[in-house]
What does this fold into?
Amino acid sequence: MVYRCARCKQVIEIDTEAGGVRCSYCGHRILLKERGATIKRVNAK
Ligand SMILES: [Zn+2]
It folds into this structure.
């Protein structure tokens, strides 16, 4: 999942299954779900 930190506004990709959700830049623990930022890989033709 892709989140945006509520404090420093950095975009962070986090696997929420792994446990703690925390900004890796500033350590803030309130992250907002980032919409439309899904990272997808599409095979180029
Ligand atoms: Zn942050």
Strands lie at 2-5, 11-13, 31-33. The pocket of zinc ion is lined by residues 5, 7-8, 10, 23, 25-26, 28 (CB under 6 Å). The mean pLDDT is 82. The chain is about 0% helix and 20% strand.
